[in-house]
Amino acid sequence: xxxxxxxxxxxxxxxxxxxxxxxxxxxxxxxxxxxxxxxxxxxxxxxxxxxxxxxxxxxxxxxxxxxxxx
Length: 70
Hints:
Elements: E1 3-5, H1 14-24, E2 29-32, H2 37-49, E3 52-57, E4 60-68
Helix pairs in contact: 1-2
């Protein structure tokens, strides 16, 4: 499963990090956000624009799994 690590990525640049896998439909994939609630919110908003959704990885609140929307 593809992993995108957002450590060190500025909030304004998150869209560009997620755009290609979202457009290409490379789901599921993991996004490492760290514990930042702001970063998680940004990731959720971006993937929703592509009709995708996220789930927190069980046992690791610093990772989100992006998957197909319902």
